[in-house]
Amino acid sequence: MNGKIPSVQRDSISGGLTGESAYQWACFLADEADMINDTFGYSRFKSISETLTSEPKPVSFHCKDLEEAIKSWTE
What we know:
The protein is mostly helical. Helix content is 55%, strand content 0%.
């Protein structure tokens, strides 16, 4: 990622993050954690991003850790 905060896109039915939005956020958060040497955060968000590389991407993705991190960046 280039350091730009991703947009939050949600599935209109479940309210969860779209697969692409969740992937972009997980990559962004892993990069941010890596820059501050947060090895736990990096591992957690890198693992989520790797989960989301499957094809097809999920229509809706729910993850408490990801939602909490996004909230801290967007509020």
